[in-house]
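Minutes, project check-in
Item: structure for the 71-residue chain
Input as provided by the requester:
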Amino acid sequence: MGKINAHCQKNDEDCIQQQLKGGTGIILPTRNLVEELKKLDDMENRVDDLLKELDVPTIKVSFEKLLLSVR
């Protein structure tokens, strides 16, 4: 299989079918996923709290909002 585009144009059936075919058979290890995500979230929150406690200037950016602003 050749290179698959990251994004398909609306109604580009060939591209869409390549995306569907490329995603078939993928196995994601999810055994401890929820616990791991909670742990990572806790770690991030502790860093945020520490930065605030130390008066370190920070900027909060939403990846989704950032991505939408680029389009």
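Outcome recorded: The CA atoms of residues 64 and 70 lie 10 Å apart.
No further action items on this chain.
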